[in-house]
Structures are given as C-alpha cells and as structure tokens.
Write a sequence for this structure.
C-alpha cells in the first residue's frame, strides 16, 4: 500500500479496509494505533473545500477523548498523497452500535444489553447531551444528528461520528462549511420545508431539536414524539400523509392537544417523567407551524438537558428512582404512584422495533 503523509510530514501506512461510504473509504492505519484514515473518493468532493474544512476542524480546541473515553471521532491530521490532499486521520471508533439499539424495545436490545433497565436509557441520554453541549460550547453545530451518526458501546459510551459533515465556521476567517445532509424525521421544523438542505442552515437550535427527539425515544420506549394514533374518522388530508407534516405543524400529542390524534397505547404515560423533564420537552416541542420559528430559541439546550437529566443519571443510591415491587428490571422516577412499565406491553409492534414510522400512525 502506498504511503500517505500528514500535515507535518508524518508518514502513515494504510492497513485493512474497514468500510466505504458515499464520500470515502475508511482504512486502519498500520503505524498509528487507535486511528483510522478516511480517503475521499476522487469524484465526490471538492478536495480543496474539504481540506479547508478539515484543517479548520483540526485547528479547533476539540479533544476527541475526555476522561479516557472517546466522545467524538474528530479529525486529527490531514492526509496527502504527494502534494494532493486525499483525506484525514481520525480516532478509531470501537463503539459498535447505533444509538437505536438502546432505544428499541425488543429482543435485539435484550441480546446486547441483557441487564437493560431504564437507567441505561437515562445514561445514554445524559452522555449524548453532554457531548452535544461540549461541541456547542466550542461553536460547533452537529447538523445531521441521525441515529447512524451516534454510536454507543455496552458501557454507556456515546460517540458522535461522521464529523466531516458537521456544520463548521472557521473562527478566524468566518468561512462557513455547511452541513447539507440530514434525515427528515430528525430535522427541526425550520429545515423541513427548505427543499435542498443547502438552502437551509443548521444551528445549535436545530441540533437541540434533534437531541430532544433522541432523548424522547430513549426515555419513552422508542416513541417518536411526533408519532400518534389517529382517533378521528376524518379523512386524512394530503399534508397528513407527509410523514414529516407532524414536525412542520408541531403535532406532538405529549405536549399539546392535537385534534384527532393521541399517543399510541403502548407508550408509557408522559407524566411518568419528572416534571422538569416534561418541561424540557415542552420547551422544544410545544409549537405550531406559525410559532415554530419564533420558538426555536426557546428549545431546551444541550446544557439544560444535561442538567435536568443529572438527577436521574446520578450514581446509586439514587433517591430520584425507584424499583417496581413485581419486577426488579422496572425502574422509574420516584413520583409515580404505580409502575409505568407494568402498564405497557413488553414488546411492541415489529414495525416500530425496526424504527419505521407508519405514514399515518406512529
Ligand atoms: Zn413494574
């Protein structure tokens, strides 16, 4: 394999190919343990744009590893072949699962987390909010916070990957390197109607929206905050057939009354959550098509999420949580007078377990 050179002349040797995506191929590095190389496909990127973006990212004070835990697969060196920029070096991410594997309420999660209790969901929510807060503190917008870009390991670790798609502004030159990709069901209302995402702009507020969707799914048994069952016989209008119309119109049945819609039966009651967590969701999801833009600034920030989750995430003995008298795996907030997990089915619809949302239902 040919040698590649880093920004300051360090020689890198590519090893085994780990995988290929739309933009590039990732290889192990033989002489730099714990690191991998991403080599861009020749056809997909404006190489000089990506060089400036990656160089900007490397110049920012982001530490991929904090408290000995990898948190973000942040670029660490540029890669050249001869004088040509071809890719970059980043940490190897050993965390094997997408975050979806902890929100899914099914036998797949059982296999990975045989001791799963709701405390796991809290821990992942807490750690995810922490890393988003850390990036926001450093002026970085994640942008495409889809489930594939949030990786987890069995021990509570949360790692953000695919950092070269983040929305970055060079702090010195103010050059903007936009995020132009995103999964519609994770996007804030202001990004739903822009057509191509290159016409919109990701912000900390749009990250706060996506973060709240992750946290809702984690804490509420994989429920989509904008999913609902239809309770009126009214014929659906065309806009309701659009799976993301609920996000555009702010139809979150947990935080406001949405005519004709209700929470699906398998979802635990929203008031199972402590009041301050319910309020954090209300600040983010209680809007309408008319107020969405105005209320974007009110969304619960990553820092606020981290703070409100701390009460539930703190170590044992945790006075904010209690255990069901019938099932030791049922752990829930202490204000509940009965176990919210005994009241909901153990496994829900297989379609949901696969993370798919029906067009009209949940
Ligand atoms: Zn129970």
């Amino acid at each position: 394999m040919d040698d590649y050179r880093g920004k300051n002349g360090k020689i890198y040797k590519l090893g085994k190919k780990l995988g290929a995506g739309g933009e590039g191929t990732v290889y192990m590095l033989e002489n730099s343990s714990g690191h991998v190389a991403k080599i861009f496909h020749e056809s997909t990127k404006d190489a000089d744009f990506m060089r400036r973006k990656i160089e900007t990212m490397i110049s920012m004070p982001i530490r991929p590893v904090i408290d000995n835990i990898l948190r973000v697969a942040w670029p660490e060196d540029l890669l050249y072949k001869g004088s040509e920029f071809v890719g970059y070096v980043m940490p190897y991410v050993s965390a094997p699962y997408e975050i979806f594997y902890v929100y899914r309420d099914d036998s797949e999660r059982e296999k990975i987390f045989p001791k799963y209790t709701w405390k796991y969901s809290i821990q992942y929510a807490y750690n995810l909010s922490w890393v988003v807060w850390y990036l926001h503190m450093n002026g970085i917008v994640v942008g495409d916070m889809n489930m594939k870009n949030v990786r987890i390991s069995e021990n509570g670790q949360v790692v953000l990957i695919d950092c070269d798609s983040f929305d970055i502004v060079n702090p010195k030159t103010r050059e903007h390197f936009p995020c132009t990709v995103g999964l519609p069901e994770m996007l804030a209302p202001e990004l739903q109607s822009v057509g191509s995402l290159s016409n919109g702009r990701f912000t900390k507020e749009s990250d706060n929206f996506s973060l709240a969707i992750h946290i809702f799914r984690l804490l509420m048994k994989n429920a989509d905050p904008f999913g609902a069952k239809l309770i009126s016989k009214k014929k659906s209008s065309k806009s309701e057939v659009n799976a993301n119309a609920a996000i555009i119109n702010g139809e979150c049945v947990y935080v406001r009354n949405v005519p004709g819609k209700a929470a699906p039966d398998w979802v635990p009651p929203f008031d199972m959550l402590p009041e301050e967590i319910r309020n954090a969701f209300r600040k983010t999801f209680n809007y309408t098509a008319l107020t969405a833009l105005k209320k974007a600034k009110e969304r619960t920030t990553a820092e606020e999420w981290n703070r409100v989750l701390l009460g539930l995430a703190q170590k044992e003995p945790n006075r904010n949580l209690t255990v069901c008298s019938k099932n030791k795996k049922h752990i829930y907030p202490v204000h509940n007078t009965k176990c919210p997990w005994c009241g909901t089915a153990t496994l829900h619809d297989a379609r949901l377990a696969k993370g798919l949302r029906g067009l009209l239902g949940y």
